[in-house]
């Protein structure tokens, strides 16, 4: 299980060095197999707090000598904006529109910063050096996810939320420490962020801060509009269903996507991501279904039948095992 410390800290104060926290968890029966660091000190690529910061793209202009490049005027908290030469395709729609009327936040790196080479195979660290690019001096970058070590995506620059603070070190805004914990079956209570927080509180004496979530159901009754049948009550003694209507499918917020990624899950859309987020945070298994694609809005809980297959959300075709051991 991957536990991002920023998420864990929402429920319990952590004043110990991460290595000491990992030691206490391990001696408490929750073996910390690995500590992953992203952007912070001790990571494979620490983000220099002076050279890699949050910036706002003010304007995108055509490059005078290249159709596949643009010039981005960037505010990174200095007295004057800085011009960056970039070929990021996700900036092209803003070309020659004048000063942008809304924030367009990005990760900005100045000369001397160490980044991953976005064009190299694998993970090759390089130092950013100024040089002319088609007649225009370029001594800074707007960074892609690969250049920061966040993923292998180098198709465009990383776009940050509108409220990302200009000038803040990216390390402070996006850096993370993740505990990878190998849990044994007797520690199933810890298969969630809240579960791990309880253990941390018990092991360190820090107070546990649990919210009291309240679910408010509005609108007409669900009775007669959705149904659940459980064929194996010994294996599934309780299955609850709710109905949400009028929802709009789209991407989930940036912060939620990053947390899911750091916890080892792939963001899909706002509805699926919310379901997975709640499951990871509280340990309550949840799943969302498109009500219009469920026959008669009738969910049937049963074991798989011989020869059945299922294509899951990661587009993998899976054989199903017709026995309780299949999970």
Automatic annotation (TrEMBL):
Pfam families membership: B3_4, tRNA_bind
Domain TRNA-binding, chain residue ranges per copy: 46-171
Name of protein: Phenylalanine--tRNA ligase subunit beta
GO process terms (BP): phenylalanyl-tRNA aminoacylation
Keyword Mitochondrion on entry: no
Gene Ontology molecular function: phenylalanine-tRNA ligase activity; tRNA binding
Keyword RNA-binding applies: yes
PROSITE patterns documented for this protein: TRBD
GO cellular component: phenylalanine-tRNA ligase complex
Organism name: Chloroflexus aggregans
Record's keyword terms, sorted: Ligase, RNA-binding, tRNA-binding
